[in-house]
Here is the input.
Amino acid sequence: NADSAVTLAKQRGRNNYAFYTQALTEQARRRMSLESDLHLALQRGQLRVYYQLQKDLRSGQWAGLEALVRWQHPEQGIIPPNEFLPVARHAGLMGDIDEFVLHQACRQMRLWLDAGYPLRSMAVNMSGYWMERGDVVSSARAALTQCGLEASHLELEVTEDEVMQHGEQSELLLDRLAELGVRLAIDDFGTGYSSLLRLKRMPVNKLKIDRGFISDLPGSGSDSAMARAIIALGKSLQLSITAEGIETPAQEALLREFGCDTGQGYLYNAPLPAAEVERLLAAGPA
Ligand code: C2E
Ligand code: MG
Ligand code: MG
Ligand code: MG
Here is the structure.
């Protein structure tokens, strides 16, 4: 595809302008055609919500899930979020996508709770664009009411950078969401610019340690020190801690030893359609 063509062109050296330019043009063309398709995708129901399980590292039970969007493109198949969310931002569709995922994820949570699975939370990602649009609180309230969920069943994830970039306005929004009873998590923690002072003031319930700190565990001494420090920091602020991107039993064991509460990663499952996640839920504890 165009991305790998760009990588290849870069590898071939800086002088290969023709190839590089061609690859960029291809990338721009792909982006433009995706943008016009994306407007229709929402209306035509081509967006899919996949789910990734989160495991309680103490009890070994499934604790909750994160909803992650995919685009089922009619010609190109499944397109991952890192490829089409930048297009969605450019097209002004990011808030609509987040809202779609919120409603879909809440409906699915209702079905799984009705089926008797003892899940604590459904996590939904919240972009700065959605936060700016200003209707997150009413959307969350509507989704919870329509699905008969308790506010504490819903967890909204936001990255450090999104919170910091939107300043006072986002702090006010987080306060209103916390008043509603929705749980709040800082996503990709450790990768962004964050002020610990503001973190202390924010009504956040959870830190999600970015998988950049997890992938080289247990071998990397510095990553191990960082993961341990983040967990200790979180604990001292009475926050729950989730580690992202757990891929091996050794990583899980170390994080459990450090006192990490929950884990998420390919060790348990890649994000999957609801029907496939349901098979894992039905199979019982991890
Ligand atoms: P995120 O919220 O930090 O989600 C975690 C990402 O890490 C997911 O990528 C997941 O598939 C991936 N991941 C999970 N476990 C592992 C692992 O063990 N190893 C590796 N290598 N990767 C793992 P995904 O689904 O491609 O999503 C990428 C990002 O796109 C998300 O990062 C999130 O920032 C954004 N995103 C996805 N869905 C939505 C959405 O509905 N709304 C918004 N605003 N952003 C979304
Ligand atoms: Mg997330
Ligand atoms: Mg993350
Ligand atoms: Mg991320």
In short: The mean pLDDT is 91. Residues 52, 68-69, 80-82, 85, 98, 101, 125, 127, 157, 187-188, 211, 244-247, 264-266, 271 surround C2E (ligand 1) (CB under 6 Å). DSSP finds twelve helices and ten strands in the chain. Strands lie at 47-56, 62-73, 77-79, 121-125, 154-159, 183-189, 206-209, 240-243, 262-263, 272-273.
